[in-house]
User: What shape does this take?
Amino acid sequence: MKTFFDFSAPKIDGSGDAIAGLAGKTVLAVNVASECGYTPQYAGLERLHEAFGERGFAVLGFPCNQFGAQEPGTEEEIQTFCSVNYGVEFPLTRKIEVNGAKRHPVFAWLTGEGQGFPGDVKWNFEKFLVDADGRLIGRYGSRIKPDDVRLQADICKALDARP
Assistant: This one.
């Protein structure tokens, strides 16, 4: 049976695989966009990444231009925007598609029937919580902010379950 860590996605700067370096961590995978009403969530995602990073947690952003063409920039522009405007240091991948015929394989897996949270991604900043074994354990809509009590409780629960 495949896990999240069986997939690969190139880092935004092309320097390798963004998923491989996260094996064994609890990961919040998020499809992101720079020109969306939810874009300020970048700051909260970075705070999560910093707050729980030492406990084996990471945020992984997947830039996507499928929703309202709200991620039109190049990889370099995206990386600069995130760093300058939101202090983002968590890893980002190259731009991908999360729905449709060109859907990235990791999103086909995340949204597939077998993972317990099936269905297409509805908008930017949808979040998928993956445990340290690479199993999908939660899915949260775009309106769920990074400081949401339930989301943070689920992250803590996943971190506490680690050996």
